UniProtKB/TrEMBL annotation:
Stated name of the protein: SLC29A3 isoform 2
Superkingdom of this protein's organism: Eukaryota
Any one Gene Ontology cellular component term annotated for this protein: plasma membrane
GO molecular function annotation: nucleoside transmembrane transporter activity
Naturally occurring in which organism (per UniProt): Pongo abelii (Sumatran orangutan)
Amino acid sequence: MAHTSSSSAWALAVYCRGTSLSLPRSTGCSNSATPPAQPRGRTLRAQTSWVAVHIRVLASLTVILAIFMVITALVKVDTSSWTRGFFAVTIVCMVILSGASTVFSSSIYGMTGSFPMRNSQALISGGAMGGTVSAVASLVDLAASSDVRDSALAFFLTATIFLMLCMGLYLLLSRLEYARYYMRPVLAAHVFSGEEELPQDSPSAPSVASRFIDSHTPPLCPILKKTASLGFCVTYVFFITSLIYPAVCTNIESLNKGSGSVWTTKFFIPLTTFLLYNFADLCGRQLTAWIQVPGPNSKALPGCVLLRTCLIPLFMLCNYQPRVHLKTVVFQSDVYPTLLSSLLGLSNGYLSTLALLYGPKIVPRELAEATGVVMSFYMCLGLTLGSACSTLLVHLI
């Protein structure tokens, strides 16, 4: 998770740095990548936490970096004499790392909710890119390395270097005119009027600032109501994905395993499960940069999300081993798990990215940060539920 989050921050920083500025005379709040002229009038931004987003991002990255440095230092340490203590240290590190990663993810998603869609899309694609790079590195290590400790040291050291690089790139954001524009306080805004148009592009909508200008607390109930459909899509997409991947995928064996080939034994799962899924996920997320169909208010979006439920029985009918209850393997070819892994990753990347992108764009701009945090909560909820239920699914096979 830490690796994915840091890759996303890197993608956002690099993208913002490479975008040229040309400020037109328009005073509206545009959703395009070129920011309009600075609007005039009373401004505010809903606060999603008592702690500023910059502090949350930097603090969580610092904690993640510190944990990785500790783990890296312990790689070459002989822990055979204090296995219980080492286990306790590892568990504590994982708990802290998970908490810091959650804070970072929610903060960064919230912050980018105020940016145009193409910036948010770059952020989300960065997460999938991190997974793809990790899968490739794992394959290279599997083919070339013979020492487990040296491999672990290389992995953790690389992650530590990337984290330091990401912190440096994030610090550059405040110096970029492009980023400063979209992170500025915005006009006291416009809210939920039941209109079909995106409120961020409708400066004539009625004001809602008086509801929370004193407390600086975003109105959570209207946000939840407005994003209910998209929230369901995000939760269910990640629920189905984490239900299948990796619990079921990693136990699907090649039907030609007895041939003795390294491609059907040693490399089969790393290729068909990890690399193929992550690459398809990256392609699906990147596809949203050019195609954004269905729209945020379309019933086809939740329909496509629900359709992914069919993937569960299809994976169960592949050569999952060991089998206890379902004795029959229906798909008698290695082509089927390969295609299903690709479909799982592609649909996960495309549908989840669409829903995550739409969320902050269907609310007033001063609520975009809060909505981004809410959407990240939906994502975490889906991952948690799917992971919890995956054990039950495994027992059913």
